[in-house]
Structure formats: structure tokens, C-alpha cells
Amino acid sequence: MISRINLLKCKEGVSEEEFRRVMTGEVSEALAKMPLLRKCEIDFVTDNEQRSILGRGSVDIDGFIEMVFDSHGDMLASLAQAGDAVWEALSPIVDEPVRALVTVRKLDKLVPEYLAGRDIIKRVSFCDRKEGVDAMTFQFEWWYVHSILVELMGGCCGYNQNLVVDRFVGSEAVHYADLPVEGIVEFWFEDMDAFDECYSSEGYLKRASVHAAEFIGTVTTYFVEAVPVELGK
């Protein structure tokens, strides 16, 4: 699966209430009409406290839109056919140009069906590369080693890795140095007790965190509220 993640920062003077109103109104309506879109959700930042032993990175957002497609070609076709409707709906409330990350998603641990519809916790982390680590090394260590160590942490009920394959500022493709995010982590927890269990576990403290510091430079963490977009309106 391919995801396009639009990073959003409120314009100065736009309140949280206005941001949410427009995002769940005009923006959601424009997203719902996009062809070839398999899934879409709007994520609102609810907590930006840095909960990581690593330093905080450069991602500064109030929310993001996550659009999921079957393929890169479907994503390009959908954006071309949708035109400027989404961007026109966004422009009154967010800073421009909008930054976007295109990712390949790896589903390491699916949230169980019995939790569907429940108010569980979602945590998102934006990771860059440690100095001296190239993109190929990052991918290998993250996808094929780190995901195994995460299984030893316990506590989480869902875990996805999203490897960044392209970056945009507005309509212009940019280099990693201009938008230094190499991977996006999505974690789900049943409650804060489960979160605390996960990050106090021996699997995290003595294995996963030690390994992460070998290839990740900084991590920017957020708790978010995920609001699904009803497609096909």
C-alpha cells in the first residue's frame, strides 16, 4: 500500500476549533470525492510531548491527512483527477506550501477486530536518519531488525512502519535534506497503562531503544486523534 501524508500547521490566528471544523467539514468533503482512494483519515494532534530518549526532530504540525492507495500510479491518477479541491479547502486554515510524505506501509501488527470502534490511543513518530547512516541501511535496520525487537516490547495492540519514498513541498519534489523524515511509526495502545507498560519494558529499555539509537537521529512524537473520512460521498 502507498500512503500520502500531508503535514499540516495551522495558520497564525486560526483556532483549534476552527481548524477541526474546516478539516471535518469542507476538507473531509473534498477528500471523500477523490477517486481511487482506498482509505483516508484526518489525524489531529492531541499531545506533542516528546516521549523518546532521542532528541526531537524538525516536524512541527497540528495534524495530518493520511490517504491510502493501492499503488503509486493510483495515487498520481487520483491527485490529477481530483484537481485543486482539497488544497482550496485547506488554504484558509493551514500554512502553505503544504509538505507531504509518500510512504510504503508495512503492517507489522494489526489492531485486533474486537477493538474496532473503541477509543484507543494512537501514537505517531517521525524519524530521521542518524548522521552517517544512508537510506538503504536505515531501511534494513528498521524493517528487518527493529520490527522484530518491537515484538518483544509488549503493551501495544498495533504497529505499522511507513518508509518514506518521496517528499514534496507544495507540488515540488524535494531532497531528504529539505524534509528530513525517513520513516513514520504508528503505534496503538488500549490505554495509557498499556503505553507505560510498553515503554518501561525490558524489551524497549534494553533492546529496541538501544538498537534505534544506532540508526535513528531524532524522533518527533505525537499522540493523535484519528478521524476516518467516509469515502464515496
In short:
The protein is of the alpha+beta class and 233 residues long.
Question: Can you put this structure into words, describing what you see?
Answer:
There is one protein chain. The protein has 233 residues and is α+β, with helices and mostly antiparallel strands. It has six helices and nine strands, in the order βαββααββαβββααβ. It has helices spanning 16-32, 72-82, 85-90, 135-150, 192-199, 202-215; strands at residues 2-8, 39-47, 63-69, 99-109, 121-129, 158-169, 172-173, 183-189, 216-228. It has an eight-stranded antiparallel beta barrel with strand order 1-3-2-9-5-8-6-4, surrounded by five helices. Helix 4 (135-150) packs antiparallel against helix 6. The radius of gyration is 17 Å and the shape is globular. It starts with a strand and ends in a 5-residue tail after the last strand. The mean pLDDT is 93.
